[in-house]
Design a protein that fits this description.
- With about 525 residues, the protein is α/β, with parallel strands linked by helices.
- About 45% of the residues lie in helices and about 15% in strands.
- It is built from 21 helices and 14 strands.
- It has helices at about 60-65, 70-90, 115-125, 135-150, 155, 190-200, 205-225, 240-245, 260-270, 275-280, 290-305, 320-325, 335-350, 355-370, 375, 380-390, 405-415, 420-435, 450-470, 505-515, 515-520, and strands at about 20-30, 30-40, 45-55, 100-105, 130, 160-165, 170-175, 180-185, 235, 255-260, 310-315, 485, 490-495, 525-530.
- It has a 5-stranded mixed β-sheet with strand order 3-2-1-4-5, sandwiched between helices. Strands 8-7-6-9 form a 4-stranded mixed β-sheet, with helices on both faces.
- A hairpin with a 4-residue loop joins strand 6 and strand 7 (about 170-175).
- The longest helix has 20 residues, at about 70-90.
Length: about 525
């Protein structure tokens, strides 16, 4: 593909109009800016028909790894691409409003002038682009793999190690019967590796061996991490592996099984091929040719270390399926929520939390959330964050029971919870921080970074968590919420007809912990038995 703006790839052929169901998703990736226009099924934004796909080359990753910042030429080129896309959006009646979403690769965070690009795009095109972070990418890779496994029942029954060699990091997820049982991330991205080896001055004669040597340390870490886990199959996805492996496909099946020896021979050809030849052979733009070899080698080395003779690789373009997943409603899927909760429980186990107390408090908090949804005006995602906070709110006790709420904040803030991005982990840490003692104040660390809406959100969720925690003050899991109702200036919580159980401890705790709820909602919390 010619990197000039005149060459625009497109797919689909829907009629142009201003249907309220039409949406658009734009992604500023490591080597290109892509956009899909699709027909949405409902307000959940689930794509049911791809109307058009456009893609334009952009040397974003090349700039970042070469100089640590984006050149003026790259920034202005991105602006021109956005404006070009705006013309297409106008034809669909999608200019303005909330039916166009734009995101950027999480690699952008490594550019010192990342905000300059985002500001320039908003001023020039009126589109506010949101930067994906590692948590977002992990979520998207999970959804990508989960959909493939759902479509492949035979593979879904096996223990599958899914590998995504991204531009900066490699993510591995081990699935057992369709459920994730282990997740790890390593700084072994295709662009990162290609750039490092290039700076070493490797020539084409030893390029392949130099890449293998460079990734050897990360590969050994991966082998150690999964040494006790039997692996039946490897599923490799990504911008680099899919176009290369597709050339070995014999049919048009959505998932192919690629012989590792054949792919290894193909890697040797990649190591001696010129950029123009690679672009033509694999139908990628010239900026996407540099990481091809590194991406293939990383996948080959992992599969080889686990003694597997073949890799499963999806056919077709990674970007199209990635954008479709990004635009869809899978984020709210029950299956994904289950994985997030599982990761939170793993974190709680790591820090020896009283699991029965944590899970009971989480259940009580969610019950309160559901009972008071009209009062709190919070979202389903807030419900998930509250449940996670309930599970992990006492991890700080691992360091010391004294001020354990503050220790909980530090541990959670510096931990990874599968499927949550950096902002969401910070929110969980803050909610946990305020499950006891003190109230969120604008001058507090990290609270000061929130908008007013963000501070109110944390206060509401922390208030719910405090009430739930007070209901299990004795760590006995004896109280259940029957219902919670607002009556005049009180929140009345019916804890049921209790036999041989004293609620005095919880009642005293509620008087101490109901302060935040009363401050936020103006309601005194009262326990009732019946």
């Amino acid at each position: 593909m010619n990197p000039e703006l005149g060459d625009t790839g497109q797919a689909g052929g829907g009629s142009i109009g201003a249907s309220l169901k039409q949406r658009a998703m734009i992604n500023i990736g490591p080597s290109a800016v892509s956009m899909i226009v699709f027909e949405a099924e409902d307000e959940a934004n689930t794509p049911i028909e791809l109307l058009e796909m456009l893609e334009q080359p952009l040397p974003l990753a090349a700039d970042i790894f070469r100089d640590g910042l984006l050149s003026r030429g790259t920034i202005e080129r991105c602006v021109r691409i956005f404006n070009r896309f705006q013309a297409t959006l106008s034809e669909y009646g999608l200019r303005g409003g909330n039916r166009v979403e734009a995101v950027t690769t999480n690699l952008l965070s490594e550019a010192d002038n990342a905000e300059l690009l985002l500001d320039r795009l908003q001023v020039a095109s009126g589109v506010e682009a949101r930067s994906l972070d590692d948590g977002d990418m992990t979520r998207l890779v999970y959804l990508f793999v989960a959909r493939i496994l759902k479509e492949q029942p035979a593979l879904n029954k096996s223990r599958v190690l899914a590998i995504h060699v991204g531009p900066g990091n490699t993510r591995l997820m081990l699935f057992k019967k369709g459920r994730i049982v282990q997740y790890n991330s390593y700084r072994m991205g295709a662009y990162r590796v290609a750039d490092a080896v290039e700076k070493m001055g490797s020539g084409s004669d030893n390029l392949l061996s130099d890449i293998k040597a460079h990734v050897n340390g990360s590969i050994e870490q991966i082998v150690g991490a999964y040494a006790n886990e039997p692996i039946d199959e490897v599923l490799a996805i990504g911008h680099e592996i899919q176009p290369v492996a597709t050339t070995l496909a014999k049919d048009e099946e959505p998932l192919m099984k690629v012989d590792r020896k054949k792919l290894s021979r193909l890697a040797k050809q990649l190591s001696v091929s010129k950029e123009k030849q690679l672009a033509e052979t694999y139908e990628v733009n010239v900026y996407a040719t540099r990481p091809l070899l590194a991406g293939v080698v990383c996948n080959l080395e992992v599969a080889g270390k686990f003694g597997l003779s073949a890799l499963h690789v999806p056919t077709g373009r990674f970007e199209e399926r990635f954008l479709t997943g990004l635009a869809g409603s899978d984020f709210a899927a029950k299956r994904f929520v289950h994985e997030v909760i599982g990761s939170a429980k793993a974190l709680a186990r790591k820090y020896a939390v009283d699991k029965d107390h944590g899970r009971h408090v989480a259940a009580l908090a969610v019950k309160l959330f559901d009972e008071l949804v009209e009062l709190t005006a919070l979202s389903p995602q807030d419900r998930l964050l509250l449940e996670v906070a309930g599970i992990v709110h006492e991890v700080g006790g691992f360091i010391s029971r004294r001020s354990h709420h503050k220790h909980s904040f530090y541990i959670i803030k510096n931990s990874e919870i599968f499927g949550l991005n950096d902002e969401e982990i910070t929110l969980v840490a803050l909610i946990s921080r305020y499950h006891r003692h003190g109230l969120p104040e604008a001058t507090h660390l990290f609270v000061s970074d929130l908008t007013r809406e963000g501070r109110i959100r944390v206060s509401k969720l922390a208030a719910l968590l405090r009430v739930a925690d007070a209901l299990d003050r004795g760590h006995q899991q004896q109280l259940q919420i029957q219902h919670a109702r607002v009556k005049k200036d009180q929140l009345r919580i019916l804890v049921g007809d209790i036999v041989n159980v004293s609620v005095s401890v919880e009642g005293l705790a509620m008087r101490a912990k109901g302060d935040l709820f009363e401050q936020v909602f103006g309601l005194e919390v009262v326990l009732e038995t019946g």
